[in-house]
Amino acid sequence: MTYDELIELLATRFGVARDKMRPEATLTDLGLESLAVAELSVIISEHTDRDTELRPGMPLASAAAGC
Q: Which of 30, 37, 46, 55 has the most CB atoms lying inside 10 A of its own CB?
């Protein structure tokens, strides 16, 4: 999943404001709690056909790179 695809997913599915999203912002900074991060991991895994395990403190750039 590309960084832009991740941004789109966070905006549309989780209601995260686009102006808050920066490569260094963590998922926690964006207001995602552990359950939302787990749900995001499942959505990305289904989209990419790869196991993806995100962590709340993970920056967006790292999250996109790991997908």
A: 37
